[in-house]
Amino acid sequence: MPKSETILALDPGLRELGFAVMTGPKLIASGVRPLYLSPTRFRVGEARRMLRQLLKAHRPQLVILERTNAHPTGTFNSVHLLARSLLRMCSRRGIRTVTYATQTVRKGITGNGNAPKREVAKVLAARFLSLHVYVSQDKKWKERFWQNLFDALALAVFHQMKDKPPSRSRSSG
After folding, report:
1. Domain tally, the chain
2. pTM of the predicted model, to two decimals?
């Protein structure tokens, strides 16, 4: 039996970096690393440091990131530059990378490409029961913080789903 591939999925952002590590169907590690504690000019470097730690700790064969696009305005373009930097870092280390569009992932997870983040989180928490505690929070900022974890996890789960052949149902007639 071939060994399952270890996947590191990242939801890049300039405030937080969501991550999920999966080997086969098993969730190995997940979380959110805050970047907002660092001054803005140091956040890309901090995200790169965090990625190095995750690569060293989990040795993934594949890194998945949410697809970003170049943008004429500051913050959106900064997130795009961060994502490109993380992808280049992985490529230089010989690690395969893939990106997926947000709507494609949401459609694969919930059946609706425009599903709100909370709906995606509920679907994933139903599959990974230990994460249920992060779906509903007493403060809006906490809910937004933990959404980064679910966004990263959605990337990994979607990647695994798309590689599986569709299941066939048998009729009893």
Report:
1. 1
2. 0.88
